[in-house]
Design brief:
Helices cover 21% and strands 34% of the residues. The chain is an alpha+beta fold and 331 residues long. The radius of gyration is 33 Å and the shape is flat.
């Protein structure tokens, strides 16, 4: 009968639709966890993909035994001490070098990589300033292998330089931070004194300004008349020290870090406000008898840093001015 045939068609259609719904449900159940899963990026694979083909040398700084750097400031030969593995300057072994500065050069002469391949060959060195490089560095590795790295002109984009090596035909563009160590001079490799101080055992802070004592703070034993941090102002008068002022001094003590070396050798300290009748002298004394004095001078032109030096040091350095706010306080 006709009605029976129609019923069969409806049942068949319902079965097909039900099957489709079941299949879609299964597919959705499988897909949802995948879609919702957080994508984890492998930093090693990501780095490899980003630098693939742009890496001209892939060694480490610990493998570097000797470097001969040549730039407009002269020739600098750096060798490792056989015992300590520290760096020394072969042209002047007595010159105290800033180890971190030499380590940076070793890092970027061993591992040379660019952000862009500029040329696949060296047919046109002139266009990139590599016919007469601004700097070059010969590097000898501990296994006897060698490499020469050449720094060309600054690129017009990306705050970068053109770079090549004798181990690859490619010319790449490297970011300035990787190139800066190749442009060093005698001043920039000058060793830097350590300024950071510990709070433990500190018992006096004395500030002298232009040869005249400005103020002095001293740690005192607890008493009924002394309730704030056991510290008092002892010059030019005697009174409790403001807790906020003391917190500022003590917290900045451990953060005193040199920003850069700006001069060294036979320096005219008056140019930096560091002559004896100009400078501010801050001395930190400890219960052990240890004392450290730091001389502070003028602000830099931009006002962001202040010049400083320390006793028996021939260098002039800068430090973030905000770290020295405490020397401007009044008793």
């Amino acid at each position: 009968p006709k009605g029976s045939t129609m019923d069969k068609k409806k049942v068949k259609l319902l079965v097909i639709l039900s099957s489709i719904v079941v299949v879609l449900g299964i597919a959705l159940a499988i897909a949802l966890p995948i879609l919702n899963r957080e994508v984890v990026v492998d930093p090693v694979k990501e780095y490899t993909a980003a630098t693939e083909g742009k890496t001209l040398s892939n060694r480490t700084s610990t493998e570097v035994e000797k470097m001969i750097l040549t730039n407009k400031n002269g020739v600098f030969t750096f060798c490792r001490d056989a015992g300590t593995r520290d760096w020394y300057w072969e042209e002047d072994p007595s010159y105290a070098v800033y180890q971190s500065a030499i380590d940076a050069l070793a890092k970027y002469t061993a591992h040379v990589y660019g952000v862009e391949i500029i040329a696949e060959n060296k047919d046109d060195l002139f266009s990139f300033g590599l016919l007469e490089p601004a700097a070059s560095c010969y590097t000898l590795f501990t296994d006897g292998q060698e490499i020469n790295v050449y720094i060309g002109d600054m690129a017009p984009v990306g705050n970068s330089y053109y770079v090549m090596t004798d181990s690859s035909e490619k010319i790449v563009r490297c970011v300035t931070s990787n190139v800066s160590p190749f442009l060093m001079n005698k001043t920039s490799i000058h060793d830097r004194p350590s300024l950071a101080l510990e709070q433990q055992g500190l018992n006096q802070i004395e500030v002298i300004e232009a040869g005249e004592e400005k103020f002095s703070l001293e740690y005192k034993e607890a008493s009924e008349n002394l309730t704030i941090y056991n510290w008092q102002i002892t010059y030019p008068f005697v009174t409790d020290c403001d807790s906020d002022v003391l917190e500022n001094i003590l917290s900045n003590m451990s953060s005193l870090t040199i920003s850069e070396t700006v001069d060294s050798g036979n320096v005219d300290l008056s140019m930096y406000g560091l002559a004896e009748d100009q400078r501010t002298e801050v001395t930190f004394r400890y219960s052990t008898g240890f004392a450290k004095t730091i001389y502070y001078g003028n602000l830099t032109e931009d006002g962001a840093h202040r010049y400083l030096t320390v006793p028996d040091d021939d260098g002039v350095y800068t430090i973030a001015a905000e770290l020295l706010d405490f020397i401007n306080i009044s008793p």
